[in-house]
Amino acid sequence: MTTKSRERLYGTDVRIAAERAARARREADRLACDAWNKRMLGFKGPAQPSPTLGDALNAGFGYLEVRCLGCDTKQTVALNIVRRPKTMPVHELERYMRCKDCSRLRGYPYKRSALVALRETKISTTHPPSVWWPGER
């Protein structure tokens, strides 16, 4: 006489619950990132509190758009190559951002930047930079 294994009895339920929890976490991270983006684009901040790097990557936002306050250029930074812990909030990256053009022109690291928004794609001709508030161009 044999009995059914626990894997056979409960395995499917455990896997379904784990998948459902992962989907809920992804949706919660996406909502947190969307709320932060709306706050940054609508009010120009405040950047705190912000989602963590891991939350942004889990939600599908792979890039952070940054604006240089010296030359007013906008660049994207890939979040998956940032060498910081995934538990670090996005707003703490602001102090590490440097503009290459301004630094070369001034001869020292120019660190004046402003975080704009989290993005799913890089800035390109088909995906232009984010607009701070309605009417700005």
Q: What does the model show?
A:
- With 137 residues, the chain is an alpha+beta fold.
- It contains three helices and three strands.
- It has helices at residues 6-43, 53-59, 100-106, and strands at residues 63-68, 74-78, 113-119.
- Strands 2-1-3 form a three-stranded antiparallel β-sheet.
- Helix 1 (6-43) crosses helix 2.
- The radius of gyration is 20 Å and the shape is elongated.
- The model has no long low-confidence stretch (mean pLDDT 85).
Spatial ordering of strands, largest sheet:
2-1-3
What is the end-to-end distance? Answer: 76 Å
- The gross shape turns out to be elongated
What is the helix tally?
3
What share of the residues does DSSP label as strand, in percent? 5-15%
Main sheet characteristics: 3 strands, antiparallel
Cα-based radius of gyration, to the nearest Å: 20 Å
| Proportion of residues in helical segments | 25-40%
Count of distinct strands: 3
Which series of helices and strands comes N to C?
HHEEHE
Mean of all residue-level pLDDT scores: 85
Low confidence ranges:
none
Structural class call reads alpha+beta
